[in-house]
Amino acid sequence: MEEEIELSRVAMHISRGCLIVPIQIELYDEIILRIQKDILERVKDTGVKGVIIDVSGVEIIDSFFAQAICDTARMTYMLGATTVLAGLKPEVAASLVDLDIDFRDIQTAMDIEAGFQRLEPLVRPKEEPEEIEEYEEIEEPEGEFDEDQEVQIGEDGEIEEEDNYKDEE
Amino acid sequence: MKNKEKNIKIHGEADIAEASFEGKLSAETAGFRQSEQYMIATVISELARNTFLYALRGEIRIKIIESNNKKGIEIVAQDEGFGIKDIGQAMKDNFSTSNGLGLGLPGVKRIMDEFVIETKAEVGTKITVRKWV
């Protein structure tokens, strides 16, 4: 419960398969680090493949903040999610260049919408390769695990698998 | 004309944000464009952060200056830390997002028009920067 309250301060939400993190506050290190932690927990809990950090409301990004964002992106990547930094203001970009900070490690986008477009191929992979994987998985376990519906279908072999294929198409 | 000097003691992380915010207000008063106001605020944030990270305590002084009918802003970051051992190293562009925090001083110098650093081992560091409108 306590975590929920903390999360609500940053008002993260999941939309179109991405975790959206709107950042409006500035420069309070403690908060930045907490957001970092929250993002990681949220990624782990939900298994999202994309994170969009929206900094369109941020006017000052110093080296600490930039570092925290880069670290977060790298950490989420290790958990299997790609981070896009969206909405950098022109003056912030200018300051970052002067300060010799860059975001080479992470993708950037003009705004959240552009961020979605960048992440779309990752968040919603093409269906065909997934089906092939499922097909292979179905064959091997032969209904040993009752929890998994798809495995149960596998008991009857080819016919059921074909049905499965049609459904997903 | 407000030439009152602002003096912000840096004792904690929240003070960094305060110094930065006060700097933005002063820059606005001095007549800087909005983009420059934010750059000045970023500079103060870097300076205050260095103070906090490397000396733990110190202060940021901000004042509006005037010379030859030109207005500007002067920011002094002073601490009572151990001093910077190798200024040459500190002024090198070695900040990289993958190598932890740099001092950010080369960037501060680039953004501002004037940059003076005085440091003495065991006494502390004083960095004075100015920017003209």
TrEMBL record, chain B:
Keyword ATP-binding: yes
GO molecular function: ATP binding
Source lineage: Bacteria, Bacteria division WOR-3
InterPro entries assigned: HATPase_C_sf, HATPase_dom
CDD domains linked: HATPase_RsbT-like
Keywords: ATP-binding, Nucleotide-binding
Domain Histidine kinase/HSP90-like ATPase positions: 40-130
Protein name (record): ATP-binding protein
Top-level division of the source organism's lineage: Bacteria
